[in-house]
Amino acid sequence: MEPISFQPSIEDYRKAGLDINKYSPTTFIRLLSFLYKDKMWLDDHRIFAALGIQLMPMFFRTDEWDHEDDKPSQHRFFRLIVNALEKNDASLIQIENTNTHWRYWGTKIEEGDY
């Protein structure tokens, strides 16, 4: 894999929804995940190889959902997944009110922490 080299612009930060005036290492990682999301996650081949199983079609994939502090058995999102698996129909999984994207999570890392 080739290394990534770039000079982020103020516009890159703006498009990512990041405040350059509140810069921290977390801000930089969030920018990288915005600009290079496809490079931040393993591809299907590597995931299945790491699990030691043969590649198979992916039933469902998401990187955002409505995460609550409920037990998984009580959580609407996970119950939708169970229902979809039982009926073999991923379209039954309706994602609403997502809150797992980093923009919803603050950071306690301040400039003096690094």
Task: Provide the β-strand percentage band.
Answer: under 5%
The arrangement of helices and strands along the chain is HHHHH
Biggest sheet architecture = none
Number of helices in the DSSP assignment = 5
Helix and strand layout, with pairings?
Blueprint: H1 10-16, H2 25-35, H3 37-40, H4 44-51, H5 76-87
Detailed description of the structure:
With 114 residues, this protein is mainly alpha-helical. 37% of the residues lie in helices and 0% in strands. It contains five helices and no strands. It has helices spanning 10-16, 25-35, 37-40, 44-51, 76-87. It is globular and about 50 Å long. It starts with 9 loop residues before the first helix and ends in a 27-residue tail after the last helix.
Write a concise synopsis of the structure shown.
With 114 residues, this protein is mostly helical. 37% of the residues lie in helices and 0% in strands.
Pick out its properties.
114 residues; mainly alpha; 5 helices; 37% helix; globular
